[in-house]
Write a structure and sequence with these properties.
There is one protein chain. By secondary structure, the chain is α+β, with helices and mostly antiparallel strands. It is 51% helix and 14% strand. Strands 1-5-2-3-4-6 form a 6-stranded antiparallel sheet. The protein has a two-stranded antiparallel sheet with strand order 7-8. β3 and β4 form a beta hairpin. The longest helix is centred in the middle third of the chain and has 22 residues. It is globular.
């Protein structure tokens, strides 16, 4: 199976859903203004992810140094060895026993999530997926479940504007706010973890690495802590974003608003599904509703028309047995 096209017509969520449902293996490449992303997928699971060019703070080396587990000197040694032996940096780090496999894989996964969140925010770009056997180092495999990535991506896309409106940017620095707090103000474990790392010097990027959380989730927790009067914003980065990137913000905001309006119209019944689908089949949470929409569009692209019923989507591997059972149950 080969897929190629524009993200305007076929978003990253539709592509990953198709690959996941059919348990495909291959290489997915996405070319956008933000960079060129290359994702290796094995039996529907994401095993490796790279981006070129990498911006400041996006390199694996940056995550390693911020974690405090590897020194700049060790990074330099591993980089030289990787270049000489034509190996990936993470493989050399393990061979030299500079970092444990457990800690390395955790950092690789956090970096991958940060890059995947970027992908879900893209509105323009070109993609190409080529089904083929993939080669990767099993010891450093991301082994990320694509369905979980899809749910996480939808959440990030829906909440991005609100969260970033609260924190400003990932370069934001917070400090603890003085005060007395009772039992009713007790924080959740992950909130406590983030709160303890706030020191008035570390930015969101640094705290995220230390907490082994994605940048977005760290920003969301800090936004919540700010609302609870536990932390206060100290500073934002002085550097301005490139003009090209700022110009993309408004279209992203507008797209998010339109997407929310579309879901509301679907839920109210004002916008109907193609024939063959009853109102009962439209019930369920937003994730399953969206997945059904995407499955229909994938079917239309492949077959030239919409399916007559849900079973047709299941036969083509566009709906899982679990999804089919759900929609049949609510009929």
């Amino acid at each position: 199976m080969g897929l190629r096209g524009s993200l305007k017509d076929f978003g990253i969520s539709e592509i990953l859903q198709l690959i996941s449902l059919q348990r495909r293996s291959g290489k997915l490449e996405v070319e956008a203004e933000e960079g060129r992303y290359q994702i290796l997928i094995d039996q529907g699971r994401i095993v490796q992810l790279d981006k070129e060019p990498e911006e400041s703070g996006e390199r694996l080396e940056d995550y390693l140094i911020l974690s405090g587990l590897v020194t700049p000197e060790q990074i330099k040694l591993a980089q030289n060895r990787a270049k000489k032996e034509l190996k990936r940096l993470e493989e050399v780090l393990l061979n030299l026993e500079i970092i444990s496999r457990e800690n390395l894989v955790k950092l690789l996964r956090i970096r991958a999530l940060d890059l995947i969140h970027q992908l879900f925010l893209l509105r323009e770009g070109e993609y190409e997926f080529e089904a083929e056997p993939v080669n990767y180092h099993p010891e450093t495999s991301l082994n990320l479940d694509t369905e979980q990535i899809l749910m996480d991506g939808y959440r990030v896309r829906d909440e991005w504007k609100l969260v970033m409106g609260e924190v400003g940017s990932f370069g934001a620095v917070f400090k603890k706010k003085p005060g007395e707090f009772g039992l009713q103000d007790r924080l959740e474990p992950v909130e406590t973890q983030i709160y303890r790392l706030v020191d008035g010097k570390r930015n969101i990027i640094h705290i995220a690495v230390l907490a082994r959380q994605s940048r977005f989730d760290t920003a969301k927790i800090l936004a919540d802590l700010s609302k609870k009067q536990r932390v206060v914003l100290v500073s934002l980065p002085k550097e301005k974003e490139p003009e090209g990137k700022r110009s993309l913000l408004l279209p992203k905001i507008i797209s998010g608003i339109l997407f929310g309006v579309l879901l509301a119209l679907i839920g109210s019944g004002i916008i109907l599904f193609p024939r063959g689908f009853s109102r009962a089949e439209r019930k369920g949470d937003i994730f399953i509703e969206e997945r059904l929409n995407q499955a229909q569009e994938i079917y239309r692209l492949e077959k030239g028309g919409y399916p007559e019923n849900l079973e047709a989507l299941a036969r083509d591997g566009l709906l899982s047995e679990k999804d089919l059972h759900f929609f049949q149950k609510v009929k």
